[in-house]
Amino acid sequence: MAAPRAFLHLASSIWKWGPRDIRGLSRTVAPEGSWRKGRALLQFLADHFYDVKALREYLFRKQVLKVHQKNRSFTHIKEQYGPYIAGAYFVLKQGGAVKFQGQEWMQSNGRGRFSLDFFKFQAVPVEAVDASGCAINYQGLDNLLALKELQSLSLQRCPHVDDWCLSRLHQLAGSLQELSLAGCPQVSERGLACLHHLQKLRRLDISDLPAVSNPGLTRILVEEMLPNCEVLGADWAQGLKLGPEEQS
Amino acid sequence: MLRRALRLGVGRCPLGRGLGTRRGGSTLDWDGKVSDIKKKIQSVLPGGAWNPLYDTSHLPPEHSDVVIVGGGVLGLSVAYWLKRLEKRRGAIQVLVVDRDYTYSHASTVLSVGGIRQQFSLPENIQLSLFSVDFLRNINEYLAVVDDPPLDLQFNPLGYLLLASEKGAAIMENNVKVQRQEGAKVCLMSPEQLRNKFPWINTEGVALASYGLENEGWFDPWCLLQGLRRKVQSMGVRFCHGEVTRFISSSDRMETASGEEVTLKRIHEVHVKMDRSLEYQPVECAIVINAAGAWSGQIAELAGIGKGPPGTLQGTKLPVEPRKRYVYLWHCPQGPGLETPFVTDTSGTYFRREGLGNNYLGGCSPTEEEEPDPGNLEVDHDFFQDKVWPHLAQRVPAFESLKVRSAWAGYYDYNTFDQNGVVGPHPLVVNMYFATGFSGHGLQQAPAVGRAVAEMVLEGHFQTINLSPFLFSRFYLGEKVEERNII
After folding, report:
1. Is residue A240 part of a domain?
2. Would A245 be classed as within a structural domain?
3. Is there a contact between A27 and B156 if contact means CB atoms under 8 Å apart?
4. Which InterPro entries does the record associate with it (chain A) (predicted)?
5. ipTM of this predicted complex?
6. Domain count, chain A
7. pLDDT tens digit string along B2-35?
8. Which residue of A has its CA nearest to B155?
9. Nearest chain A Cα to B141, which residue?
10. Across A13-17, A211-215, B389-393, which has the greatest mean pLDDT?
């Protein structure tokens, strides 16, 4: 029973090669083993045949459209039920968790289903949003920025949250107290500099950001920028070379 | 007898063995000969550049539908949008001609790389808004199969423009126009400025406008390389050469009111190769002048401006190169990570560069102090006399700084009204302009490229109406002035 399932797994991962290459792996990173041969074959085919190139471009566009589709705005819900319900619906649909003021955390189950009970909380503001790992991008952030009383926002490991998204967060400056950006692959120190608008921020998590060039120095500069905020990040000594007496 | 026969027999045997040995060559370089024959066959087949006399692979093609003079960010942007908006894949052949493949004097790569929406003209604001949208989604527009995504290193910290008492009313008006077009700009009073940016000395500042979103600076080299890569994958040809001549034909026609005009049409572009007298005449249908600081010379080659002054034939393209200096300095106690792109009331500007307290900045000289644009040498006294005093007055921490390096670049300066020239020439009917942006060409390049491509393919502007930027305004004397020029 395990063998056919493993085969299907491999087949599906091979099928996903084309579009995933463009987004994730770069040409400089050499994948190992049979992946390398497969990718070299795909590159050769795309370089020499217009049809293969057009097909791969089409698959890439489909992937991009999928992310756009996930981040569409729910104008109907917003008009009928208000911005809090629309924002909560958006987060739950993406697979995140939402906490209304005075209520418990709500999240969709493993299959993406969630109950629509929260539609009765039209006047209750949303207090906290946990969008870890969701495919939120610049467009989708519209739904979150309408939550004017949001106090805690977690965008951990979101693959499409980048510096442009952070430049929009100034709209939540009036209420946001806790923000977590740990593990976002596209956030760099330039986006972190935009957080100076968030004067009410008390906790900021900027650990494990691969795109930041100098994590220790960035943490110091962010701490200087936001004096009332506790910044969790890389240790300032990380990245410093050991002195001659410390080297073993 | 037998011995002689045996010797002859042994001698003749190798000759009779195979055809190859008959030729008498003692050694046979079979591998080398095979690769030579393969190359010859490849060049003879369709698509190869076959010339039995000499190699012509460095020359441009003999025919091309569109020739774009200038391979900087504006030229490549026009090429990209032409290929993107064409009705059928491969319908238009585009050739980009640039005389410097290292881009050593190109304004694009020497630019400070800022992008802002804080202009006074609605057209400029719209151009900038679309361009920032393009930059944000650059990996969807310029995606090439199997190549890594582009990292523009965009810094979204915004522009901070300071105004004195006399400029405050104009600034308020400008901000109103900007907000109407959709830019996110806010006005700040001197106290708000001091609260937000404690390192600023607000003496002499009456009002400040601060861009909250969609403004900042980025790496222009990355944009250029991304455009180049994408445009090559779409089938645009590149040629390193200099345009030396246009062969055109003239037609006498009558306007609706009975006046006679001479309309000119360019048929051939002569492209001369680097360091040689060899040139290739390229037959073309449309020529796009995106030569940046040297657009004036290209326009003169096409005969624009050769006529009695005051007439349409005698109106030259008023674009000339103007040298601007950029200085990089280090100041250990300088403004922090949140420093926006600050523009002082005196015209001096600066921005942060990187994490190490380095700053970039400069100032546009007045008309009397314009440096000689013959070379790109830097005048360090200009920093001492004209830039540093204003910097130290505005930011007291800059009183102690150390200049690390400096460079100079050209503005493609439009001496008429410092705004771009876009669209066809009224008399030379197939030359289109995309130049003269006087220092804000890089930030408007994607939108201008689209506008010129629409003009070429459809005949009119479709998305952003740039009719105020047409060439005819130079003859009619209608200045379209932009107040916020940095």
Report:
1. no
2. no
3. no
4. LRR_dom_sf (IPR032675)
5. 0.82
6. 2
7. 666 555 544 444 444 444 444 544 566 788 888 8
8. A190
9. A61
10. B389-393
